[in-house]
């Protein structure tokens, strides 16, 4: 097995565009790649930039129903025909010309990265244009048309993987990936998200723990609104590493939605870029400690498209490339100029940090506070799934 990493990039992924005013602005993708380039990460010795073809019908059928794929193809050719069927043509998922091609292209990048990691071409693969975790087998949902994380995992299973772990730190529940592998004991899905009582999609309760043949393989941590860096990282470290160690995955797939950030307009957590970077570092470490170094890292949500997303995902790329970006470093002026050229925004971030030092109380060392909603959430998850893995809650 070789080392190194590859980041998947094709300028055409910016064609995944639901139109003016939609929160899923593809400028967040192009600005991320421009920031990666501004830091010279695309020229890092351990990183190569790779472009892959769109996922074909046989690949899409690993997760999605043929009738749904056919519907996406029809709407792609004639957006005016979308009437809400299959979730297409809704406010969340408006139809646009080329929607099938753009969605399949993003899926193709994630699948190709998974293949490269499994073959041993590289240890780490990154597709920050991916992470579209809400798409269901038979419908679009939550800005997501094809579920590239689920497709990548399904391809890994097809190639012979026996245990794949998926960790999702997007502010929204990773419901589509959980659904795809609900009753498959080969896949452990862990989702750390805002409480379903206060945020879309309204699922992801700790009691949702897997089907009859896979009890304990769906893991949900439902965080109270307002959770900040310390609580978020306490929950992450209080649930994920013990489960990964017990499950012993051959590959770790992670989804790094940046919408946990305090400035994100669609959710209610209060996490910083610094904590998001810390979570990416933790996932990188778990991949090496527990999955032979095999790591596929994906993007996801994130709607503060200038101030947050590019910085968070550039940190992710740097970590995967073995060339982490110093959070204290000044953002290159060339990137700030690119922001102005693309968006007209003058006040782009000046540094790669929000000025926070991510610290958290370690679960099991600091004691449990029964009056703390965060601790209640972590304990609820541990009680729901840990015994299925032979672990004490």
UniProtKB/TrEMBL annotation:
<dbReference type="InterPro" id="IPR003085">
    <property type="entry name" value="AcuC"/>
</dbReference>
<dbReference type="InterPro" id="IPR037138">
    <property type="entry name" value="His_deacetylse_dom_sf"/>
</dbReference>
<comment type="pathway">
    <text>Ketone degradation; acetoin degradation.</text>
</comment>
<dbReference type="InterPro" id="IPR023801">
    <property type="entry name" value="His_deacetylse_dom"/>
</dbReference>
<dbReference type="InterPro" id="IPR000286">
    <property type="entry name" value="HDACs"/>
</dbReference>
<dbReference type="Pfam" id="PF00850">
    <property type="entry name" value="Hist_deacetyl"/>
</dbReference>
<protein>
    <recommendedName>
        <fullName>Acetoin utilization protein AcuC</fullName>
    </recommendedName>
</protein>
<dbReference type="InterPro" id="IPR023696">
    <property type="entry name" value="Ureohydrolase_dom_sf"/>
</dbReference>
<keyword id="KW-0006">Acetoin catabolism</keyword>
<feature type="domain" description="Histone deacetylase">
    <location>
        <begin position="22"/>
        <end position="317"/>
    </location>
</feature>
<comment type="similarity">
    <text>Belongs to the histone deacetylase family.</text>
</comment>
